[in-house]
Specification:
- The chain is α/β, with parallel strands linked by helices and 514 residues long.
- It has 4 domains: 222 residues, Pyruvate-ferredoxin Oxidoreductase, domain 3, CATH 3.40.920.10; 78 residues; 99 residues, no CATH class; 80 residues.
- 55% of the residues lie in helices and 9% in strands.
- The strands form 2 sheets. Strands 2-3-1-4-5-6 form a 6-stranded mixed sheet, with helices on both faces.
- β4, α2 and β5 form a beta-alpha-beta unit.
- The longest helix has 21 residues.
- It is globular, with a radius of gyration of 28 Å.
Amino acid sequence: MNPTNSQSRAITIAILAMGGEGGGVLADWLVDLAEHNGFVAQTTSVPGVAQRTGATVYYLEMFAKTSIPEGRQPVFALSPFPGQVDIVLASELMEAGRALQRGLVNPQHTTLITSSHRVYAMKERIAMGDGRMDSDKLLAGAKAAAHQFIAADFSAMAENFGSLIGPALYGALAASGQLPFTRQQFEETIQRGGIGVASSLQAFAAAFNEAQRQLGASPSDSLNQSDDKAQTKQARVGPRLQAMAHRIQTEFRPAAHATLLAGIARLSDYQSETYATLYLDRLVPLTQNAPINDLGDEIVAEAARHLALWMSYEDTVRVADLKIRRSRFDRVSQEVKQSTEQLLDINEFLHPRLEEIADTLPAALGRWLLQTRWARQLVGRFTQQGRIVKTTSLRGYLLLYVIASLRVTRPYSLRYGVEQQRINAWLNSITGLLKTNDKLALQLIRAQQLVKGYGDTHSRGWRNFQRLMTALPQFQNEPDAAIKLQQLQKIALSDDSEQELLTSLKAQGLLHAI
């Protein structure tokens, strides 16, 4: 849009932002920008049900005063009309996807400006498997749907200057040339606001420069930028793990090196270097039996990932350990933007079940607790309801510290013994299948994602995994066995009630094996 005051219709802008991101401030800036530079403007907002079930949509229309006939006033709409929005600003990539879904983006004239970072929706977080939307597909779809497309991690850009994302999106909008105002006029609006001016102007400038770079670059540059950054990241380990890192370089396939390095770092942090060594030892037979081709490389890499996840299963010790780490306190402090004059309290809701308490105890004592009725009833009195623990208080912190310190006794616990038996059985099944059906072996590796989480989530996932393992011998010699296992796994991941999997197994004549 050229910077001219001649127009026949209102300029329409939609802003999709979550709570606390400054979407309202951004809308106010645009109204102020318009009214101080010869336009009349109106903004409305439609709040979502919650932050991730629907962000607030701020809608703005502006009309040049010089184009208004004498004695008449423009009539502004209260909400965006599909296909008639000139500019869409999205504070997060999924919100850009929502704008596409609503039909707000028109390939003939809409400029779409979005941050490329993700704030995962609740649906993505609670999925039994990997419920994340594919960011690359979202970016490609957004680019194809818009007349002009600008995407960058504006959130990180704003955080670098202690700002909200709003000023960064404002800067990208200024650089797009789609509003008839100069950069100076945009910046004057921020200055008139009088709050956080310095940081906002810095975020504005950084985003302005990035948007200009993209508009002068080849069309594929903005889409490939995130991939290039990801490829430059290299897994690193500390000096205590150098011997294991050398072993990985010499004994394992290059395709799995990055995953294996991340695996030994995770398991050393979870338990010890000895535990990480056990991780590598377990993968050696599988590596030796995997075929020497691309499928074999994928099998080794996937096994390395899923084995590391299973060996670092979540128990009460792990949960307590993660909740009292300095990095967690620092992260929460940064998220709430705590100042030096403010005090921060963190309240954790904990509800360990009787089974989880027994799992943490030495194996013999844990089995005794589960098998002794009066002991179960006694402990059950204290586990019927959850409790709130304030980890920022000395008492709450010490309580979780004591639980976390039980890491040294974990190898003797009831849960540890059970999990190691399960892992060994799974690995033996994979190694056996490598001799007869490589694709089925790979799918069995991936089936491990059913075994995840804590408490009821873990129990439900383990039951589904057991059902698949029990049914597997009934169809593993069929030509489409890998596809069948994959389909059953998807069914198990899609239904928390477990009924769909049971129904499917029954329909295929496999329920009698369970």
